[in-house]
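A common beginner's mistake is to predict each chain separately and then try to dock the pieces by hand. The better habit, illustrated here, is to supply every component at once so that their relative placement is modeled jointly.
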Amino acid sequence: METTGTPTDTCAGPPQGNRRPDGADKYTISEVAALTGLTAHTLRWYERIGLMPHIDRSHTGQRRYTNRDLDWLALVGKLRLTGMPVADMVRYAELVRAGDHTYGERFELLQRTREDVLSRIAELQGTLAVLDRKISFYADAGRALASERTR
Amino acid sequence: METTGTPTDTCAGPPQGNRRPDGADKYTISEVAALTGLTAHTLRWYERIGLMPHIDRSHTGQRRYTNRDLDWLALVGKLRLTGMPVADMVRYAELVRAGDHTYGERFELLQRTREDVLSRIAELQGTLAVLDRKISFYADAGRALASERTR
DNA sequence: CGCTTGCTTGGAGTGCACTCCAGCGTTCTA
DNA sequence: TAGAACGCTGGAGTGCACTCCAAGCAAGCG
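With all components supplied together, the output reads:
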């Protein structure tokens, strides 16, 4: 039945789901799903498109994720929040796989992402200002309506 | 030829495109496209799905946007930046069309959106922290490599 | 042994937000 | 008054990021 568990759980809380039971270093796909908030489907899909490093397999061919894999998924989760396209994350993953000589390129990619995040925050703060103006307008309108009702 | 003009112009700058030539109060669809950064396609689509108020037409049936319409599009643009689904914006538009008795509901919708924006900003700041740690790691690695090369 | 639960695969399907097309009418400039 | 540029419509197509399906294998349990 795939055990979607808590699929993403829209309610607020620790961003990356539950904390991992430390000491362990081998997780099944459904454990990783629970830990990251991603579905097992998505985890397999990430692997297919080259967003994951090579994932270990059990003697029967089932995926066994390590703590290192979870760290990678945590980073991917953060990058996803910035709105970075999956294709760009795949590019980054390729650079990591390619070895140490890609440090420079990775550095640049991260810096560009950082700039994006900064301007995104600025945008959101601009939006917040608009929202606050509208909200205080509606608050006033509400008060006016209320006083009209009690008059 | 549809005159996409400056389609969205990924480069930084004034978020809502150019400033409107004030005094005027009738804009063709391509003027609005240039002003908002949306395409004419998207403007027509917004109308079809009920995201726009009724748009005036010229005697031959062409759209003539007013400054009020531009203001609405500016708000929509801001809400879009927050990641609000178009369906929710349509809901808000419906409330506006429904009249004054929906003030309360609109107020709540805006407040919920405000909370979303706040937590989005917090998320992005968390991501920024992660990014900064990674960036300084790569900066150090770069320096180490450089000193190795000159050694 | 049968049953349930969990995992495997390649490929097809979904939902969102556009994006474009064909075929036609209108408006502007030379 | 020709020709280019712009606008109209309904409907089809696109790209992204998942999301699901069917058929089958493997382990644990009463």
